[in-house]
Amino acid sequence: MMGIDESKTFIPVRIAILTVSDTRGLDDDRSGDVLEKRVVEAGHELAARNVVIDDRVLIAGQLREWCVDENIDAIISTGGTGLTGRDVTVEAHRDVYEKEIDAFSTMFTMLSYAKIGTSAVQSRATAGVANGTYLFALPGSPGACKDGWDGILKYQLDARHMPCNFVEIMPRLAEHIQRK
User: Fold this and answer.
1) DSSP letter assigned to residue 126
2) Tens digits of residue pLDDT in 79-114
3) Based on the number of CB atoms within 10 Å of its own CB, is 168 exposed (0-12), middle (13-18) or buried (19 or more)?
């Protein structure tokens, strides 16, 4: 059965948020604000936050930098997942992944389809793992960020979620979980 096991201890995850945009900065980044609010309200730690332009090398560089930072367990990016020529976030993420989490894309598409119908085919949400850090790429709309967090990430990044979650297999948190 799926749900939160209240008998387990909550373990905060250190999460970095990366917004990919040619037109937004930290002062007007509504999607990043949505994610930050949800991360903090869930009890997790905002480990870092940045905005970069739609440039594959810059995006991948920021992801790689955060993947080797011992104070970051997971990265959520928003923006640059569409179908235009400037949308290169998915390709940048894949440049960094050691393993892709294929089912994340499927789950996000299912959530999107329930809300926007067949327009969900235009979404290229993706996820993967690099250096023990989990990376998630969500579309740039605040609604998509809400859907991705509320429908998938808030559960998968909670060690109390049953039957399984990403936190249980994060190398940096495994020792803490095993002690409980």
Assistant:
1) E
2) 999 998 899 999 999 999 999 999 999 999 999 999
3) middle
Secondary structure of residue 74 in the 3-state scheme: strand
Q: How far apart are the first and last CA of the chain?
A: 22
Cβ pair 31, 145 in contact under 8 A: yes
Q: What are phi and psi of 32, to 5 degrees?
A: -65, -35
Q: How many residues comprise the chain?
A: 180
Other C-beta atoms lying within 10 Å of the C-beta of residue 105: 17
Q: What percent of the chain has pLDDT over 90?
A: 79
Tokens for 132, please give them. 């023990």
pLDDT tens digits, one per residue of 43-81: 999 999 999 999 999 999 999 999 999 999 999 999 999
